[in-house]
Amino acid sequence: MKETIHYDDQEERVYIQRVQDVEPILKKIQEEKLSVRDVEGLGVKAGTIPGVVVEEYMKEMGITFNEFLSDDVHVRRILLDPDFKGLRVWEGKF
């Protein structure tokens, strides 16, 4: 993840912009999908969530990183969201 600090002269405010190239992550997910297509049961990787997606989700939900990690509902909500279908490795139920 890359951070850039911006300063707005008119508003006299500092902004931090975070950018992440998710293409390598999406490519790896596609490769992992091939290896888990016919696998079921415990221990199967459900997906990968890029850091920028986690940050945006936490901001929208008004939660901390600790709150995100301590409740599985947040990971499920992201991975089961149709907008983030590309983050799923395994298409089974979890």
Could you explain how this protein is built, in words?
The protein is an alpha+beta fold and 94 residues long. The protein has helices at 23-36, 51-61, 65-70, 72-79, and strands at residues 2-8, 13-19. The chain has a two-stranded antiparallel ribbon. The two termini are 28 Å apart.
Task: Compose a concise summary of this entry.
With 94 residues, the chain is an alpha+beta fold.
State the distance separating the first and last CA atoms: 28 Å
**Helical segment count:** 4
List the helices and strands in order.
EEHHHH
> What structural class do the secondary elements suggest?
alpha+beta
Task: Report the β-strand fraction as a percent range.
Answer: 5-15%
Mean pLDDT: 90
Q: Give Rg in angstroms.
A: 16 Å
Note the main sheet.
2 strands, antiparallel
Spatial arrangement of strands, main beta sheet? 1-2
What is the global morphology? elongated
Number of DSSP-assigned strands:
2
Low-confidence stretches: none
Percent of residues in helices: 40-55%
Notable traits:
two-stranded antiparallel ribbon; 94 residues; 2 strands; alpha+beta; 15% strand
Question: Topology of this protein?
Answer:
Layout: E1 2-8, E2 13-19, H1 23-36, H2 51-61, H3 65-70, H4 72-79
Antiparallel strand pairs: 1-2
